[in-house]
TrEMBL record:
This is TetR family transcriptional regulator. Residues 13-73 form the HTH tetR-type domain. Residues 199-221 are annotated as: Disordered. Pfam families: TetR_C_8, TetR_N. InterPro entries: Homeodomain-like_sf (IPR009057), HTH-type_Tx_Regulator (IPR050624), HTH_TetR (IPR001647), TetR_C_Firmicutes (IPR039532). It comes from the Bacteria. Residues 36-55 bind DNA. PROSITE patterns: HTH_TETR_2. Residues 210-221 have a biased composition (Basic and acidic residues). GO terms for molecular function: DNA binding. Transmembrane segments: none annotated. The keyword DNA-binding applies. Gene3D superfamilies: Tetracycline Repressor, domain 2.
Length: 221
């Protein structure tokens, strides 16, 4: 019985993935308002009945795509300090920075963010999510009474967002690895000795080794 449930879940996930990919593909050449459910299911090689098992409107499908991307964005942002009590920027390695890998993995979506009216507000949402992550997850031990940390969190969030948007506009001409190294250089140049304490426990992190600075790490192929 559990095996049947697992098989069913996989089929549902496969159908949803096909519908999501279909919608994103259609949005590359069509305005969202012009895309029909028939267009979506035909591109996905599914039928309308399958669509309506999971969604009532195409807007629900797009909302799910956005929510999935946001969930993965949050996980990628938290990657460097998962399951640790302290987080020192001087000890951070570029291999621990996963936010650019996240963007690269969702490149079709993020490219659409730059040109689709249906996703015009997503840039602001990304900035707000990054700001809230900085405020919620990290305590700066070396707090400065002269600094408004809510404004500082906005500064950090939109600096990262600016790097992401520039990368997209340049058609991902750099590798995700190079972008991570650049972000690390910016952070460590400004606050090499800053130490944070995490406010929450996270899942176990991935390895934190440091890559070499090879030329093929810089430009995407």
């Amino acid at each position: 019985m559990p095996r049947k449930t697992t098989t069913t879940d996989r089929r549902i996930q496969k159908s949803k993935m096909a519908l999501q990919e279909s919608l994103l593909s259609l949005m590359q050449t069509n305005d969202f308002k012009e895309i029909t459910i028939t267009d979506i299911v035909l591109r996905a090689n599914l039928n309308r009945g399958t669509f309506y098992k999971h969604y009532q409107y195409k807007e629900e499908l797009l909302d799910e795509i956005v929510d999935d991307v946001i969930t993965d964005l949050i996980a990628s942002y938290r990657e460097p300090y998962q399951h640790t009590d302290t987080f020192a920027l001087k000890d951070l390695t570029s291999s621990a920075i996963k936010i650019f890998d996240h963007v690269e993995k969702n490149a079709t979506f993020y490219t659409l963010v730059m040109k689709s009216r249906a996703l015009s507000g997503f840039q602001i949402r990304i900035g707000n999510e990054l700001k809230q992550l900085a405020l919620q997850d990290l305590d700066n031990w070396q707090s400065n009474p002269d600094i408004n940390y809510e404004l500082y969190a906005s500064y950090q969030a939109y600096a990262i967002l600016g790097m992401i948007m520039e990368w997209i506009q340049d058609d991902y001409k750099y590798t995700a690895k190079y972008m991570a190294k650049q972000l690390l250089a910016f952070l460590q140049d400004r606050r090499m000795n800053t130490v944070y304490r995490t406010k929450r426990q996270m899942p176990h992190p991935t390895g934190l080794h440091q890559e070499g600075d090879r030329p093929d790490d810089i430009h995407a192929k």
